[in-house]
Here is the input.
Amino acid sequence: MRKHLLFFNLLLHFIYEELFNKTCVGDKMKIAICDDDSIIRQKLFTIMKSENEKNGYNVKIYQFQNGFDFCSRIEEGEYYDIVIMDINIPIMNGLKVI
Here is the structure.
């Protein structure tokens, strides 16, 4: 779990420092988390939500437990600025989503 937290922190640094100011000036950035492991998905969500509240970022976070649910939202016209996708997830894996 410690390795996951280090990865999450690096990922958040990349998202907020590199992309936030460049892509979402005035608009809400939409981030999708796709992972079948509810603990990882919830941990990512909690960390991102905390950073949003602490720093006043304008970010909306969506959670999906498989690629099929994510693709269904895309087909309905939804879009996301950033997608964090587990490759090995059930029903429709991350590679099929790509």
Remarks:
- The chain has a mean pLDDT of 76.
- The helical segments are 2-23, 38-55, 67-75, 94-97.
